[in-house]
Amino acid sequence: MENHKLVAGHLSALGTILIWGVTFISTKLLLKDFTPIEILLFRFIIGYIALFLVYPHRLKTKDFKEELLFALSGLCGVTLYFLLENIALTFTLAANVGIIVSIAPLFTALLAYFFEGENLRTEFFIGFIVAIIGIVLVMLNGSYFLRVNPLGDILASLAAIVWAVYSVLMRRISRFHYNTIGCTRKVFFYGLLFMIPALFFVPFHFDYYAFTKVQNMFNLLFLGLGASAVCFVSWNWSVSILGAVKTSVYIYIVPVITIAASALILHEIITWVAFVGVLLTLAGLYVSERKTVKIVKQIDV
Asked: Within 13 Å, how many C-alpha atoms sit on residue 245's CB side?
């Protein structure tokens, strides 16, 4: 039974990443009529409403410490991560952001090692290096060399760090054994709450005409229902089963899915360099998941 649960956890993480890898395409199409903050706000409002309809019960925490963990999760996993990622795209190349954000598993592993006492394997770091080489090749796609843009790259690095913090926080929240949908909805609530101040500093307007376009509504529903409501629940559930480190390793596949979706939907060309990158990324994921030598941090209980 335990093995079946682990397999389900891996399949859930993989399915989540398959959807998240396509969100870049939907967001790119929506940016024609919406600003980044508008897309972010609308998708999570849709996600919150969907989760409320599925699980309308109030999730009452036991104390302030638990409530604080939910608030920090919403701040990191929803507000800060997506804002930092979207703003970074205005200062640097999408390739830079894609590569840097994909390093999140390393930050997750380090945080989980120091604060959670999770096991680390030497294979994780070997797989990490192989996957990053593959990710670089995928994102470059043989078209240009990676250029350094300090501000944008720093923001993307911060996005990777706050996602790692979110993963570790959700691992702690999973130990409370609350309903996963209820937990995700509470995280969304705090994410939306912390998003409100940003509306006063970035362009935001409500364009009714933009919502009348079928393509826009489809992409908003895809982001809100699929990529937000369903995927955050499945991701959080996977974290509770596999742990923050193992689940985060699947983030390596995001650039692979994105470039494949770009070729199919946006008709972008995939070069042999990107194809080699795909193979290296998948190889890195396989090596990171192998169960051999472990590095264990001893912690006091």
From this structure: 22
- Say how far apart CA 193 and CA 71 lie, in whole Å: 9
Angle at 22 between CA 20 and CA 26, to 5 degrees: 110
Residue pLDDT, tens place only, 128-177: 888 788 777 766 655 555 455 677 778 888 898 999 999 899 889 988 98
Give the predicted TM-score (pTM) of the model: 0.78
The residue ranges of every structural domain in the chain are: 2-118+148-243
Residue 121 main-chain phi, psi, to 5 deg = -115, 150
Alpha helices by DSSP H, listed for the chain, are: 2-30, 36-54, 64-74, 81-91, 94-101, 104-111, 122-140, 150-174, 180-195, 208-211, 214-221, 231-242, 244-248, 254-265, 272-289
Q: Assess contact for 74 and 162: CB atoms under 8 A.
A: no
CA separation, residue 230 to residues 147, 155, 180, 297, 298 (Å):
35, 27, 11, 34, 36
* Cα 183 to Cα 232: distance, rounded to the nearest angstrom: 10
Please state, as a whole number, how many other Cβ atoms lie within 10 Å of the Cβ of residue 289. 16
Among residues 232, 217, 218, 215, the alpha carbon closest in space to that of 54 is found at 232
CA 150 to CA 154: how far, in whole Å? 6
d(CA 153, CA 52): 36
* Pairwise CA distance, residues 147 & 95, whole Å: 9
